[in-house]
Please model this.
Amino acid sequence: MYDFCQLLGLAEYAYFYTQATNNIKLAPGTMENSLNKEMVMASLFENATEAIILTDKKGQIVLLNPCAEKMFGYSKSELIGNRIEQLLPDNVREKHEHLRDTFHQNPVNRTMGAGRDLYAKNKKGNVFPVEVSLSYYELNGERYVIAFVIDITIRKQHEAIQQEQQRELKRVSSEIQKLNQELEQKVEDRTTMLRETLAQLEKSKNELEDALEKEKELNDLKTRFVSTVSHEFRTPLAAVLSSASLLSKYVKEEEQEKRNRHIERIKEGVRHLNSMLEDLLSLGKLEEGLVASKSTPINCTEFMRDFYNDMREILKPGQQLYFEHQGEETACTDKRLLTNILLNLVSNAIKFSPENGIIKILCRNQSNLLTITVSDSGIGISNEDLQYLFQRFFRAKNATNIQGTGLGLHIVAKYLELLNGSIKVTSELNRGTTFTITIPHN
Model:
């Protein structure tokens, strides 16, 4: 609209308008030629909803429309001839004079909404926000500037309300986000607590199950202990009692062989009872932690020779015991525990091997590692029973008719734990068994 007004010659209308108000007589035909144009321009100018202000190069107001009078509260007579800075706030007047001079030196049309925050001041001194569009033209060598002014107070109020609403929305959103974070944290904390509680319950459940299992195992062990000990004690005691009773009947000199046979049965029964008592005492001490290892230097050859001589006395008729040592002579370990380990292994080899059987003991001492292998040609152990061999009171199925408590190998494994050693076993039914113990030493 503003470009259209300019093209129609708003400045020319201003000239005619000024002349008419001053009652100056114009040249013949001038008004007639411009009548239609003046009527159009008068309608645009007088009824425009924007304030229109015309200034000269000095910034003096030349013309203003009714909307401008209403907007600023001044009459035409109060403004025409005064500087445009009269309509600006006090703090920007000096700066505006410089900007106005700069504009006249290099005039450029500027449309509404150019991104500037501008303010005007009315007759009452009230400052309000405005939008200003500038245009210029020249007439008779004189440059004029046309300002189109819009009061945007209501728009700014709406914008302020909108901004406040946005700030409030942002604040509320921030609070909601904070509440959500706090709620999420609480949920996470409660979830963590719940998981920990469930873990504790699961742990308690497992501990209870373990305790129940151990209690059950203990009851089973007690039952097996009572059954085994009762049976194992009853048999040799009955043999001792029977042989002792029969021994008193053989009084003649020629019956010495019968007496010797019963005396040997009594000795065997006593040895068996003593062995069982030793196993039970050893197990009790191990369970209570009363057994500790104490390493001392030993001569392997002398140790095995003494052990060999002791074991010869319990060999069955025709059984043979072979011993071989390889490697270094001296090893450092607990002699007492090693003796008990070998005593159990070799005793079992003798017990489960037939008469005329062969038991071999191979000792190797190399690289601070003592390895002893005990092999027999006895009844052997099934693959099914091998996995349970070191459990307390376990007896292989093919050994139930042979005296024993089922504690010996369990005690051997416990002794080896004290020596940081290990034990392995290989066996074949009716072909024999081989136990290999390994003990590290310095």
Remarks:
- Confidence is low (pLDDT under 50) at residues 1-34.
- The CA atoms of residues 89 and 251 lie 150 Å apart.
